[in-house]
Task: structure prediction
Amino acid sequence: MADLWLMRHAAYEGHRPGHHAPPEAPLSAEGRAQVHRALPLPSRITAIVTSPLPRASQTGRLLSQLTGIPVIATTPLLAEWRAPSMVIGHTPDTYPQEYRTWRAQRATNPSLACGDGESLAELYDRASRCAEYLADVRRGQNGGVLAVSHSVLLSALTCLDSRPQNPEAVFRQDWLFARVVNAASRP
Result:
């Protein structure tokens, strides 16, 4: 089976550490520069799949333009964790109390969602489906596949085996913008 490589989308307009990005946030000039700095990609990568959110799909398309590696699919399975709309664009110091309360309870009750957000259980279920999807894509390739996604979903993909013991690990992993990681080397 072909290798699987993971990449967090590059920086987006309006990025601030610790805040939840609006879904429509496009790449920034710095993000486009990060994509250039991520090159060269590992030579075994022959296909790219992306999240449909602009910051990830634009990262994938720019990589494709620069390398000639085709974007073969865009799938909502690679979309970012769906944060509740009440926190989009906010930083931790401005989170509503309802969200703060949910954050304190989410590890002990992974099925609990906050408002219109995605629960940890829903996130891990989607990550499991995404892992199966990526395995199918890899079986159809002669080389490696690069999946361009978002930090929380990428973390969920790499934490599938440990989720019962530490369901919150997805929020604690540090995924640098536009850094390519071999999925086999992640914990």
